[in-house]
Design a protein that fits this description.
It is built from twelve helices and eight strands. With 318 residues, the chain is of the alpha/beta class. Helix 2 packs across helix 12, helix 4 packs across helix 9 and helix 5 packs antiparallel against helix 6.
Length: 318
């Protein structure tokens, strides 16, 4: 190697290493946000349950007063992940914060299908006794969008926080066969491996970072307890993480006014996917949450709640 080429190669390696470090830290930050669920029931919240159409018992906490809002959690999260957000919203809304099927205190009925999760949302709406505002984050945002597409006027407005759409080459597309592989691992009792697979291949977090999470992050054991639901979320986002435009025939119902928001510090693919959705559906617009990223539900609930409240309260204005 010539003396002229050596500095260039050293610079390339330095940039690559720095990129890996940034990716590692970002991955740990996101994973910590997903894992830091609190088991403390908020003061004033009442624990309830509702029976979904297929007999599944859906557990939820209800708090606050005012127009009802249902919170839909992300992958590997139960209602604990949204408790801080629920507390912020309870001053203006009646908040229904629930455990999606197979998580927390909710039961599960097989076989699974995304349609059954939509029926769970509908059961919560019926329990609220009125059309609701609907909030969803990450893969839960995709579920919320699907629910709005099917349930029409039962949903007044929809707030989506960072649906993980991959519509171009700004992020690697989801690998084929990942859903089946995760299901097989969970069914075989290899729950640690299933969670590792989801973070490494589903979220693109480097393997060494995921290994560090397993041994040093307190919330890891809680996530492994929900490992069997990983295929649920992968089924929900199927067709939206291919690196190609969003499917035009998926959301054809009458969807209520929708705001899809992405943290200003989040990866480019989140923004591109949100803009693509806003360009695809007539009632959807794109917004940004300044200074935040994918972890805002947990680490910036006050800022996120203010954005949610602003959009939903606008529906109350004459």
């Amino acid at each position: 190697m010539t003396e002229r080429r050596r500095p260039r190669r050293l610079l390339r390696w330095t940039i690559w290493i720095l990129g890996m470090v940034v990716t590692l830290l970002a991955g740990l930050w996101i994973a910590a946000a997903m894992a830091m669920n609190t088991d403390r029931v908020p003061a004033g919240a009442v624990e309830k349950h509702v029976i979904s159409r297929d007999g599944t018992a859906i557990a939820y906490e209800q708090a606050g007063s005012g127009p009802p809002i249902v919170l839909v959690a992300a992958a590997l999260s139960d209602r604990g992940a949204a408790r801080r957000l629920a507390e912020q919203l309870a001053g203006r809304f009646t908040v229904l914060n629930y455990d999606r099927r197979g998580r927390g205190r909710s039961t599960d009925t097989q076989p699974y299908s995304p349609q059954r999760e939509i029926e769970d949302v509908e059961a919560l709406i019926d329990a609220a006794g009125a059309p609701v505002f609907l909030f969803g984050s990450s893969s839960g945002a995709v579920l919320a969008l699907d629910a709005a597409n099917h349930l029409g006027s039962k949903i007044r407005r929809l707030f989506l926080y960072e649906p993980p759409f991959i519509v171009d080459n700004s992020w690697p597309p989801l690998q084929e066969g990942l859903t089946r592989e995760a299901a097989d691992l969970a069914a075989a009792g290899r729950r640690n491996e299933a969670v590792h697979l989801f973070f490494a291949q589903g979220m693109g977090i480097p393997g060494p970072a995921v290994t560090a999470m397993r041994y040093f992050m307190p919330g890891w054991s809680k996530m492994t307890g929900m490992a069997q639901t990983i295929p649920y979320d992968l089924s929900i986002v199927a067709g939206t993480q291919t690196g190609k435009p969003l499917p035009r025939d998926r959301w054809t119902g009458r969807i209520s006014p929708t705001l899809v928001v992405v943290g200003s510090k989040s990866e480019l693919f989140f923004h591109n996917g949100a803009r693509a959705l806003a360009g695809l559906l007539p009632n959807v617009r794109y917004g940004s949450l300044e200074g935040e990223d994918h972890s805002a539900v947990l680490f910036a609930p006050k800022q996120l709640a203010a954005k949610v409240e602003q959009f939903f309260v606008a529906a109350e204005q004459p």
